[in-house]
Amino acid sequence: MDNTGILKGIKVMVIDDSNTIRGSAELFLKPSECEVILAENGFEAMSKIVDNQPDIIFVDIAMPRLDGYQTCMLIKKNPIYRSIPVIMLSSKDGLFDKARGRMSGSNDYLTKPFAAKDLLSMIRNHTL
């Protein structure tokens, strides 16, 4: 199935302290013509959310200083950004992580490493 342009203009934010994950996400999203916003930690992400108003946010759980759960809670506590879908990223596919993600307000969960089709289908499911 050709996904070229189906997600054109959708602003996708990826918050992860791993260059590899941010790079992969950007590479996977380029052909679909999404606008990709990258942040390497929760603090950087907060200012970029204000500046860019993303349509969907992917956030890594395990980050230094402000982890993914805390970042998600900050986003969901703000009435302006509460409706933005937040997808937790983790290399662990554990029930505990998923439950904790839900408690922090996340909308879904994606296990790393992810394939392009998984990332794109998550964006489609939560934005279209």
Descriptive account of the structure:
By secondary structure, this protein is α/β, with parallel strands linked by helices. It has one domain (about 10-125): Response regulator (Rossmann fold, 3-Layer(aba) Sandwich), CATH 3.40.50. Helices cover about 40% and strands about 20% of the residues. The chain has a five-stranded parallel beta sheet, sandwiched between helices. The two termini are about 15 Å apart. About 35% of the residues are buried.
In helices, the fraction of residues equals 40-55%
Provide the low-confidence segments as ranges. none
Instruction: Provide the CATH superfamily.
Output: Response regulator
Number of helices: 5
Structural class label: alpha/beta
Number of strands: 5
Query: How would you describe the shape?
Result: globular
In short:
With about 130 residues, the protein is α/β, with parallel strands linked by helices. The chain has helices at about 20-30, 40-50, 70-75, 95-105, 115-125, and strands at about 10-15, 35-40, 55-60, 85-90, 110. Helix 1 (about 20-30) crosses helix 5.
List its salient traits.
five-stranded parallel sheet; about 130 residues; alpha/beta; Rossmann fold; 5 helices; about 40% helix; single chain; globular
